[in-house]
Amino acid sequence: MNIIFDIGKVLIDFDWDSFVNRYLDPQAAEAVTEAMWHDPQWIEFDRGVLSDEQVLKLFIANAPDREREIRLVFSKLGEIPHMRDETIPFIKRLKAEGHKVFFLSNYFEYLMHTAPQALEFVGLMDGGIFSCFEHMVKPDREIYELICERYSLVPSDCIFIDDRAENVTAAQALGMKGVHFVGMTFDQLHDVINNYTAK
């Protein structure tokens, strides 16, 4: 079976709220979160079609009076992602059981450069796609088609795992099996994978 993982909030922790509250008072944190994290334009960051400075200016335009705080938070984004302790052992476990393991992630290049340690597991995987290099994002159908085409994957032989329900639904629409990874341990995920492969 081919196991396709999302990265953020699946293989790595990405706790925006704890991060922003380390640097800003509650009022400023709320304003900056609204201007940055809740801005639909963030997806363009993941799509890789805008420069870091262009994205930053979009965020600042949402809250011009918070420019100093937005620039501070932006400069510290590399502190957010942390690889989970269980990630590498779990990938090794799946591969030892004969599965191929891939990633399909909405991820922006700036974060790769500022937090490379969070992606140490990538070299263990059989391949994968970062949205920023392809200029397409989940849940758009073409990014799922791309990973299948690139690695000669048959959708019905794939299990797709993501923390966002709309991304799982899009994978299922292509014929993949889907797992909505929320409130679940890796041991529980392993049981779900086994249930799929036993059918």
Tell me what you see in this structure:
Helix 1 packs across helix 2 (26-35) and helix 4 packs antiparallel against helix 5. Helix content is 49%, strand content 15%. With 199 residues, the protein is of the alpha/beta class. The chain is globular, with a radius of gyration of 18 Å. The longest helix has 13 residues, at 186-198. The protein has helices at residues 16-23, 26-35, 42-47, 52-62, 67-75, 87-96, 109-114, 131-134, 141-151, 165-173, 186-198, and strands at residues 2-5, 12-14, 81-83, 100-105, 127-130, 158-162, 177-180. It has a five-stranded parallel beta sheet with strand order 5-4-1-6-7, with helices on both faces. The N and C termini lie close together (12 Å).
Structure, briefly:
By secondary structure, this protein is α/β, with parallel strands linked by helices. The protein has 11 helices and 7 strands.
Protein traits:
about 200 residues; alpha/beta; Rossmann fold; 5-stranded parallel β-sheet; 11 helices; globular
Give the neighbour order of strands across the main sheet. 5-4-1-6-7
Average pLDDT for all residues: 94
| CA-based shape | globular
Low-confidence stretches: none
Number of helices: 11
| Alpha carbon gyration radius | 18 Å
Measured as a percent range, the helix fraction is 40-55%
> Count of DSSP E strands?
7
Proportion of residues in β-strands: 5-15%
Helix/strand-derived category reads alpha/beta
CATH first level of the largest domain: which class? Alpha Beta
